[in-house]
Amino acid sequence: MSSHGTPIPMSSHKSGPLTGVANVPGDKSISHRSLIFGAMAVGETQITGLLEGEDVLDTAKAMRQFGAEVTDLGSGEWSVHGVGVGGFAEPDQVIDCGNSGTGVRLIMGAMATSPIAATFTGDASLNKRPMGRVTDPLALFGCQTYGRSGGRLPLTLIGAAEPVPTRYTVPMPSAQVKSAVLLAGLNTPGETVVIEQEATRDHTERMLTGFGASIKTEETKEGRVITLQGLPELVPQTITVPRDPSSAAFPVAVGLIVDGSDVLVPGIGLNPTRSGLFTTLREMGADLTYENERIEGGEPVADLRARFSTLKGIEVPPERAASMIDEYPILSVVASFAEGKTIMRGVKELRVKESDRIDAMARGLEACGVEVEEDEDTMIVHGMGPGGVPGGGTCATHLDHRIAMSFICLGLACKNPVKIDDGGPIATSFPIFEKLMKDLGATILRANS
Ligand code: S3P
């Protein structure tokens, strides 16, 4: 695992047809929240299907450091004995969130209104990412931040002893910032109000409601106004984590771009705040069908079937960006095999993810013979048609799991192999990626194998 160790160079080779069933792991966003909300409830939360990727395991460790009892029962089953809202103990070691922006930002929110101090750090990628977007609103509750200039980790937070409720308009589309403010509002008397101009993933609102918090969401001219009543007693839950649509994106993509493929990805949530990629692919002409549509845990779910398709480039509506923000890297790969241009606007948030994802994808695609245009907020990929991408490049992954997986997928449909400098970060979100792809028929090699 390269975030903590030696890089793992890999290559992917023209393969196919890819066929079979791809059971992707649990949802990363919901896995983090299950552990954190479980730690803030009184009593035992039971979790099935937790994503056991490095990011989530770092959050589990952090919850133990704040005093919760978190137990791995095996086979994706976990138990969390929570300490209650306001019950976090002061950790006696630094909290290391590894590669995870979601982990660190939500945990900072969760501790910001308790009278304790904690120091947070992460890996080389996380320590470059902006944290002011979370510490600024947390300061409104009375939380103090000390540390590096520019709002980067490592940072020490001193939680507010007498937190004051806050009304905050989130200045960028970010579920992490929204969630941090709502979590800070839990241990604050009165009403905390968060306003977002664009709808972002709503797992925090849905799950906290399930845990017994009172949260009201209203669509107004100002945007989505979310009002939380402070000081609830959170009631432990039994949670089944659905499979991750952001991980499903990879086997779906290879099903569409590798000649002759037919891939089934069962049990994928189609919550509209997460499913923008699948809508986009269907607009591009993808043979992507939703089978066995059903409701599970209150969410729409379907088995996705992706078959090799002739795709056309489209302009992705910018207002859809938040619902597919993690999927632009793999969309840019799929777009490379479409006929014509795919235009992605309103995507500047990609520049502050685990890497600058516009730059990382543009450089790697260019190294493989694809023409890409970019500006601060836009990426345009010039498609080369089915089977039309030469490949043959070496792509830098910048400690970013989704960049690594995207380029591995690219190489499966190119004329020549595609190399990546480091596949280690894939373990943060999709530890079974390599095996799952090989089981579908993909040729993926490690440099020394
Ligand atoms: C996430 C929110 C998104 C997303 C990330 C997970 C979450 O980040 O990119 O992978 O679980 O809340 P932003 O909140 O920065 O948009």
Automatic annotation (TrEMBL):
Keyword terms of this UniProt record: Amino-acid biosynthesis, Aromatic amino acid biosynthesis, Cytoplasm, Transferase
Residues that bind 3-phosphoshikimate: K28, S29, R33, S174, Q176, D326, K353
Record InterPro entries: Enolpyruvate_Tfrase_dom, Enolpyruvate_Tfrase_sf, EPSP_synthase, EPSP_synthase_CS, RNA3'P_cycl/enolpyr_Trfase_a/b
GO BP annotations, alphabetical order: amino acid biosynthetic process; aromatic amino acid family biosynthetic process; chorismate biosynthetic process
Gene3D superfamilies: Enolpyruvate transferase domain
Catalytic activity: 3-phosphoshikimate + phosphoenolpyruvate = 5-O-(1-carboxyvinyl)-3-phosphoshikimate + phosphate
Binding site for phosphoenolpyruvate: K28, G101, R129, Q176, R357, R402
Pathway(s) this gene product operates in, as recorded in its UniProt entry: Metabolic intermediate biosynthesis; chorismate biosynthesis; chorismate from D-erythrose 4-phosphate and phosphoenolpyruvate: step 6/7
Catalytic EC class: transferase
Record GO terms (molecular function): 3-phosphoshikimate 1-carboxyvinyltransferase activity
Chief place where the protein resides: cytoplasm
SUPFAM superfamilies: EPT/RTPC-like
Boundaries of every Enolpyruvate transferase domain copy: 14-435
GO cellular component entries: cytoplasm
A Pfam family reported for this protein in Swiss-Prot or TrEMBL: EPSP_synthase
Enzyme Commission code(s) on record: 2.5.1.19
Region (Disordered): 1-24
Localization, UniProt: Cytoplasm
Active-site residues from the entry: D326 (proton acceptor)
Function: Catalyzes the transfer of the enolpyruvyl moiety of phosphoenolpyruvate (PEP) to the 5-hydroxyl of shikimate-3-phosphate (S3P) to produce enolpyruvyl shikimate-3-phosphate and inorganic phosphate.
Oligomer status and interactors: Monomer.
Homology family: Belongs to the EPSP synthase family.
Protein name per UniProt: 3-phosphoshikimate 1-carboxyvinyltransferase
